[in-house]
Amino acid sequence: MTINENMLQIRQRINAACQRAGRNPATVQLMAVSKTKPATMVQEAVNAGQLLFGENYVQEARDKIPLVHGEKITWHLIGPLQRNKVKTAVTLFSMIHTVDSLELAQEINRRTEHPMPVLLEVNMGREPQKHGFLPEEVEQILPLLATMPGIQVQGLMAIPPLVADAETSRPYFRALSTLAARLNSMNLNAVSMTELSMGMSHDFEVAVEEGATIVRVGSALFGARG
Ligand SMILES: *Cc1c(COP(=O)(O)O)cnc(C)c1O
User: Fold this and answer.
1) What is the pTM of this model?
2) What DSSP character marks residue 25?
3) Are 135 and 113 in contact (CB under 8 A)?
4) Which protein residue has the closest C-alpha to ligand 1 atom 10?
5) Residue 191: how many CB atoms within 10 A of its CB?
6) For residue 196, how far is the Cα from the chain centroid?
7) How far away, in angstroms, is 30 Cα from ligand 1 center?
């Protein structure tokens, strides 16, 4: 299968999930996760109409982005961000999905020259080895983030515990969506949780059924990573 064929199929599966959930497919963005994949493959996806890409590593993105050509292409950071890479990251990416500590938010706020759209990564499975705020921490920290002019919190992101069965992810997706609604009801200035970044190759349809606005799909689009 070509990237173009994979993409068509993934979009069809997203559309079908939207239909099951009574959602408008225009409210779901497909992000192509291109980590470890060469610029030539990204270009192939661009040529097939894909515009939103996710990268995990600042250095890799810095090398790759100039090699990809097209209008209206946007790049989001979906990997952990070290504080010494923030200055570069805020110039490369139009959104950072992985704000997972107050210190990182403060550093972004300090380094950016424009309000930076971010998502707060939430450790829904409470896994000790995973990045992200615990759900109750997000509620505590949000009022503080809302006061930072360089930070524009636009939603939540989660990577639930990795299991083969997509249905196992459903309660985590549902809980993330519920958490976003609760945070919205806090009515904080400058905070509107409209984006839910959730779902990957193995479980994006379930994520769409549970309200995802951005699904992050890598291997189903570009093939397995080496
Ligand atoms: C790699 C990665 C993805 C894509 O994973 P696939 O299983 O290849 O679709 C999505 N989100 C994050 C945060 C990733 O690191």
Assistant:
1) 0.97
2) G
3) no
4) 216
5) 18
6) 8
7) 12
